[in-house]
Design a protein that fits this description.
It is a single chain. With 218 residues, this protein is α/β, with parallel strands linked by helices. The longest helix has 12 residues. The relative contact order is 0.19.
Amino acid sequence: MRRTTHTPTGTTTSCRRAPPGSTSRGCTTRSELLDPGTGTCLDVCCGTGAHAPALAEQGWTPVGVDLSGGQLSYAVRRLPVMQADATSLPFRDGSLPAAACVLAHTDVPDYAAVLSEVARVLRPGGRFVHLGVHPCYIGAFADWSERPSIVVDERYADRSRSFEAWNPAGVRARVGAWHLPLADLLNATTAAGLRLVRTAEAGPGGVPDQFGLLAMKD
């Protein structure tokens, strides 16, 4: 018998609708991974540009890319933007010093292709920060109904698009999400030609609901 899926109240895999506290925690975790710097930092799948101010505070000049014109109509108030597919970035090879993708990897069907494009446009020594929902604990496969215990079922291995969500009226029930297991994420990062530097986890109550990594292009 398959159990009903429950995830933490307010948790969503979308960068468009972050749960209470997750945006601030995401900013903190990202700032721990991406050191202050100068030059362009590409905000991959930038959505409404919610993370641009934090990038700017670290000295970077954020430039956003997203496929959604509707999202970019809000983002343009926060940073320069371009409408483009993240698997085909409108930048020259080796032209950017930094890139970040925050709370967006479950919005794309082929995140490995996005990572390959990020690696292509980064210059040698360029830095990439990924921050997303934790692939081990957030998704249709994770039952949070009996906290602090969390039950992960066999759907963890299911990489297909899912419309299952704790909130039947929420964004995930409408647009779905693609699950990327942790090993797939790490392997795709290194396969793209990026060197893993460090990782980070964040979340309330001792169980992380976010996972981040810093990778560099040698």
